[in-house]
């Protein structure tokens, strides 16, 4: 016999990065963050800026507030509204279900009213024409007019699986037109330390390309090394 689960479970305490840590990620491209994580952290490419970002400027960086909903259910996401702090990115696991929407314009609007910096889900959303004027950046798995239900079970504040990554409340979320990246809470300072160097390298290479660079030096060196064999 399977024991009935509580309809909703809320974590008693939420961890959160410092203001200085959050500030360090503002304006940082997702690619830089992935490089600082040695190629890790990116959510599945199925999670994209709503509408491809054509009508809504989808850029956000803030602490994750997690909601584990399960397929076709939005109870936990609605419950998360009570716990949003300014700058949070609400991350809702929908079990990658695409048969109905994980949120609509009113839910997204309430997130914005509570100070959220963005919304990420592995399900589709609805009410595109209503979400755009709300102005909250959204990353999702597409659009559908189909409506979800609110029956639970669900949870707020616990680790979730979404887009091939585990995300816990307090992890940093960095998202832009390229997609979404998560930085584990324990690695935030490590990544921040690496970002300045990565930014400097990227800026330098951008300048070289703008000035006409055709082949990087390392490619020339690799072609001339014993790692390359020429055959007829």
TrEMBL record:
<dbReference type="Pfam" id="PF03737">
    <property type="entry name" value="RraA-like"/>
</dbReference>
<dbReference type="InterPro" id="IPR036704">
    <property type="entry name" value="RraA/RraA-like_sf"/>
</dbReference>
<feature type="binding site">
    <location>
        <position position="126"/>
    </location>
    <ligand>
        <name>substrate</name>
    </ligand>
</feature>
<keyword id="KW-0479">Metal-binding</keyword>
<feature type="binding site">
    <location>
        <begin position="104"/>
        <end position="107"/>
    </location>
    <ligand>
        <name>substrate</name>
    </ligand>
</feature>
<keyword id="KW-0460">Magnesium</keyword>
<dbReference type="GO" id="GO:0046872">
    <property type="term" value="F:metal ion binding"/>
</dbReference>
<feature type="binding site">
    <location>
        <position position="127"/>
    </location>
    <ligand>
        <name>Mg(2+)</name>
    </ligand>
</feature>
<protein>
    <recommendedName>
        <fullName>Putative 4-hydroxy-4-methyl-2-oxoglutarate aldolase</fullName>
    </recommendedName>
</protein>
<dbReference type="InterPro" id="IPR005493">
    <property type="entry name" value="RraA/RraA-like"/>
</dbReference>
